[in-house]
UniProtKB/TrEMBL annotation:
Residues 57-474 form the Sulfatase N-terminal domain. The keyword Disulfide bond does not apply. Keywords: Calcium, Hydrolase, Metal-binding, Signal. One of its GO terms (molecular function) is hydrolase activity. PROSITE patterns: SULFATASE_1. Belongs to the sulfatase family. Pfam families: Sulfatase. Gene3D superfamilies: 3.30.1120.10, Alkaline Phosphatase, subunit A. It comes from the Bacteria. InterPro entries: Alkaline_phosphatase_core_sf (IPR017850), Sulfatase (IPR050738), Sulfatase_CS (IPR024607), Sulfatase_N (IPR000917). This is Arylsulfatase. The lineage of its organism: Bacteria, Pseudomonadati, Bacteroidota, Cytophagia, Cytophagales. Residues 1-25 form the signal peptide.
Amino acid sequence: MKKVFNPFIYMLMLLLGISIANTFAQTAEWKGTIDKSVKRSQAFKQDFSRKSPEGAPNVIWILLDDVGYGATSAFGGLINTPNLDSLANQGLRFTNFHTAGICSPTRAALLTGRNHHSVGMGLFPHYYLSADFPGYNGYIQPQKGTIAEVLRENGYSTYQLGKWHLTPDAENTDLGPFDRWPSGKGFDHNFGFLGGATDQYKPDLVEDNQHVTPDGRHLNELLTDKAIGYLKRQQKGAPNKPFFLYYATGAGHAPHQVDKVWSDKYKGKFDGGWDAYREQVFANQKKLGVIPSNAKLPERNNYIKAWKDVPADEKKLYARFMEVYAGFLEQTDHEIGRLFQYLESSGQLQNTAVFVIIGDNGGSKEGLEYGVTTKSIRFGADNITREEYKKFVLGEYDKIGTKEVATVANYPLGWAQATNTPFKFWKSDANAEGATHNPLIVYYPKGISEKGGVRNQYAHLIDLFPTVTELAGVKQPETIRGIKQDPLHGTSLAYALQDKNAPARHTQQYYTIFGNRAIYKDGWKAAAAHRPNSLDLFTYADEAKTVIENDPDKDVWELYHISDDFNELNNLAAKHPEKLKELKALFDAEAVKYNIYPLIDIEYAAQRFKEQQARQQQQAKK
C-alpha cells in the first residue's frame, strides 16, 4: 500500500525520537528521505505544474449568435464579413455542420461534448424556461466536464469572452456559488455576460467572479480589447504556454444595436426586400459550392408576405431593420479581425487552430411580423391590437439600432427566413434544418494544407471537443478534480481536415427544442413540428386565439432523405412508412438514453413565465 504523508504522525515520531529515515521513501508522490537533520535528509523536487504536449496548438472557438446560414458573405450572404471570408478562404468551409437550434442547449453541447439534454440543458437555466426533470433542470453537473477543464489540466491557459448563458438564475449574483460560472467550468479568466441577451452599450457585465461597470463603448469592442489584453499578458508571462480562447459574441442576437457608421454602410442595399435577398444569396451559395448545384429554393413561409405586397411605409421600416442587423454583423467581423491582426503580429497565428461557428442557431423569429424596437408582444405582455402595434413600430424608425431600444429589439420575420437561405424555418424549430444547420469555418495553418476547401461530412457541435483534444494530443481524462467523467458523445473531425472524401463518422443525431424534434440516421431524417409553436402564442388583443391541442402523440412526422434533399423539400413519409417507423422508434430510444422526455414546450414556458411575474408582483407589494 502507498504511504501517505501524515503531518501529525510525523510530529509524533519526532517527539518520541523515533528514527524516520526512509519512512517516506516508497511514496509515489515524493521520493526523498527525511531525518531530523537536514544534512541526513534527501530532498526530492516534485513538479506540480501542468504541462501541455509539445507543440500543442493554441485553440480559438468563435461563436456568433442568431446568425443564419445565408447571412455572412463567407457563405454567400449579402452582409460583408471580410475577416471571416479570409479565414474561410485560407481554411475550410464545413457545409453540413449542426447546432442544437437555440442558445443555451448549443453552448452546453459545445463546451461539454455531450448532448444537451444529458447535461440538464434541454432548454435554458432560467426558471420559466427550465423544468424539474433531469433533462431540463439547467444545472450542468461536474461529471460533465468542459473542454476548458480538460485543456487547463493539460497545461493550457483558458479564457472566456462574451455570452455564457449557462448559469442558473439562483446562482448569477456575485455571492455565487460559482460552480456554473465560467470560473467553475474551467476558465482561468472570463469577461462577458451571464444571461442570454444584454444591451450592447450598457451590458450586464461580469469579469471573473463579479459584476463590473461598463465604460459605454460597444460590447464587441470591449470583448476584443479584453481578449487581446489576456493574450498579451500571457505572451509576456508564459510565451510557450498554449491558450484556449472561447469568444462568444452577443451579435447578432437581440438587441440589434450598432453605431450608425456601420448601419449606414447598408443604406438602400435591402430596399429590394427579402424575396430578392433570398434569390441572390441562393445563387451566391451555388457559386461558392456551399450548397448542391442542383438545389432548389424553398417557398416563402406562410407567415411572411411577398415583398411586392408590403406597403411602402412598411418596406422602408423593414429595410432599416436589416441595415442595422447587417451593420451589427459587419462590426462584429471587424472586431474579430482585430483579434487576428494581433495574433499575426505577435507570431502566434501559425500554431493556432480556429473554429468559427456562424450562429448558435438559425435566424431569429422573435422579431415577429413587424420587428421589435422598444417593446414586444412576447407572451402577450402588452395588451395591444395589431394596428396599434404596427403604428407604434412605424413611429420608431429613428430608434432602430440605437441605444434607446429594448434588449428584445429584433428584425421582422421575413429577414429571419432570408438570412436562413437556403433553408425553411428558423431558430428553435429543431425539426428543421433552418434552426440547426449552421456554417463552420476551420482555420489551422499548421494543420491544414488545403486552402479554401469545402467539407460536406455531417457534423455536430459535440464533435468539436474531441477534435480539439485530438489536435492537441490530449486524452479525455477518466476524472477531473477527482470526479469520474461521463463519456463524450461527439466524434473527432480531425479525419476530415485532411481528407475531403472521407466518409462521415458522425452518423446519428437527435434534435429537440420546445417539443420540435428530429432524428438523423445515415442520411435519413424524421422530424415533427410540435404545436403549440412559439409563433402560435404571440397574439394581438383584438384577435381570437386559436386553441391548439397540445399532445405530442398527435404531432405529424415527416421524413426526408437528407443526403439527396439537404433542405427538406420532399416529404417521403407516405412513400417510406417503414423507414419513418424505424426512425421514430430510434428517437424514442434516444429520448430515454438522454433524458429528452417529457417534452417541455413553449406553452409550458409561457405558463411558468406568468407564474413568475405574478410572484414578483406579489413580492413588490409586500
